[in-house]
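Q: What structure does this chain adopt?
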Amino acid sequence: MKNRKYFCDVLIIGSGVTGFATAMYSARFNLKTIVVGDFDGGKITLTDEVSNYPGFKKLTGMELANKIKEHALDYDVSVVSARIKEIKKNKKGFVSKSEREVFESKTIIYATGTYNRELGLEREKELTGKGVHTCALCDGIFYKNKVVGVVGGSDSAGKEALLLAQNSKKVYIIYRGEKIRPEPINEERIKKNKKIEIINNINIISLNGEEKLSSVTFDKPYKGKKEFPLDAIFIEIGSIPNTDLVKNTGVMLNKKGEIKINRHAETNIPGFFAAGDCVDTEFKQAITGVAEGVTASYYAYQYIQNKK
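A:
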């Protein structure tokens, strides 16, 4: 079977909220725009409540993602469901290939986001989906009236605990540091929730159970014991930028593997832009990713105009 060929001004790699917001603006500049990705909406679709996106007091992550996508598709935007496996620069711009498609584009806007960091424990993959999870919205319902743990101390971990507490009997936040660090509003909610208990300065060193998780082992005793019974754990210990694809392109990355960009969302390679959680911006939110994507679309437009 021959590969399908596509030609465009802007190829947006990544179909999350950043990607679709970027596409909307690119199309407004009358640029032929294609969005390619294999997970429409991105990780925000796994978020139960979004209350910090301007214009919406409260909605789910899925609702926000759908609204942004629908807005983008009001314009002349093409969407291809595929995973890019190779990017090469040529004289005309870039050639990007998936398993069955070839995309020739004048510019690229890279917005692939991140994927969840793992604990790195021996039986983690074996027990994934069997008591080891990364999404409370997806899997928390299976642990109604059960005892569960959230591993991590970030705002995301706090929000996972609050969501789980709606159905679970007890929720432990298990954190290796001195103090969890959610946003102040969520910290107050956690303190007021009698179902949630915080265990600080401790690490999980093993996952136990036959066919599914039954307990974890800590690196030091908690209430006199190292083995701690849990029906499930939800891992929220940060993310890894999804940038493996660009490592052979010459695009500069920082030590964390994030793409280095300037205030124009430009990388070190002319015509190659990046935005969202995969870049080296410190403050990562849906709204900041969308803003970077919109900025990238404007400077992609300027880049194409200057090349004419």
